[in-house]
Write a structure and sequence with these properties.
170 residues, alpha/beta, 5-stranded mixed β-sheet, two-stranded antiparallel ribbon
Length: 170
C-alpha cells in the first residue's frame, strides 16, 4: 500500500501535547483512519474498534499502521532533536541496512517534530507562518513515520492554529 499523507489543523493552544492528544481522539472517534483489518476507512466499517486498545491489539494494524496521526505517539519538546537514524541514506542489502542502524541508530518513528524558526525561514521566508505558507513547509515532512507541527499565525501575527502533517503507514 505504501505510506499515506495526512494533515490536520487545530485551534492554537500553548500546550501542543494537549492539542495532539485531543486531535488523536477526534480522528479516532470520527474513524478518519485506515482500518487494516477490513482494508477500508474506519468510518465506513461499523465493526471498527471502539477503543485504541482494540485498534492496536490487531497485529495487522501494528504492521500496517493507520495512515493517520494515530501512528504518532509523542510531540518532541521545543529544541529536542529527533533521531532520523539511517533515513537519509540509501541501502541495497540487509547487511548495509544493519551497518547503518549500528552507526546511526533506529529512527524515532511515531514522533511529531515542531518546525524550528530556522526551518520556517528557510522553507517559507518567514518565521511567523500562516496558512499561506503551508505549501512551502509541507516538504519538511520528509521521513515516513515522523510527523511535523507548525504554529500558524493570523494576520496580526498572533498564533491562531497548530498544523500537524506527515505520512505514515505501510
Amino acid at each position: 500500500m505504501g505510506a499515506s499523507g495526512w494533515d490536520y489543523y487545530m485551534p492554537y493552544q500553548d500546550d501542543r501535547y494537549v492539542a495532539f492528544v485531543t486531535l488523536r481522539q477526534l480522528v479516532f472517534e470520527a474513524g478518519e483512519f485506515f482500518w487494516a483489518v477490513s482494508g477500508k476507512n474506519a468510518a465506513d466499517d461499523p465493526a471498527r474498534p471502539a477503543t485504541e486498545d482494540e485498534l492496536w491489539a490487531e497485529e495487522v494494524v501494528r504492521l500496517q499502521g493507520t495512515h493517520s496521526i494515530l501512528d504518532m505517539y509523542r510531540v518532541l519538546a521545543e529544541g529536542e532533536s529527533p533521531n532520523y537514524g539511517y533515513l537519509p541514506y540509501a541501502y541495497e542489502t540487509f547487511e548495509e541496512y544493519m551497518a547503518l542502524v549500528k552507526e546511526h541508530g533506529n529512527p524515532d518513528y511515531g514522533v511529531i517534530v515542531p518546525v524550528t524558526e530556522a526551518e520556517a525561514y528557510e522553507a517559507a521566508g518567514n518565521t511567523k507562518l500562516t496558512r499561506d505558507h503551508v505549501e512551502a513547509i509541507v516538504p519538511l515532512a520528509r521521513y515516513p513515520g515522523i510527523g511535523r507541527l507548525a504554529v500558524l499565525h493570523d494576520d496580526d501575527g498572533e498564533p491562531a492554529e497548530l498544523y500537524f502533517w506527515g505520512f505514515s503507514g505501510d
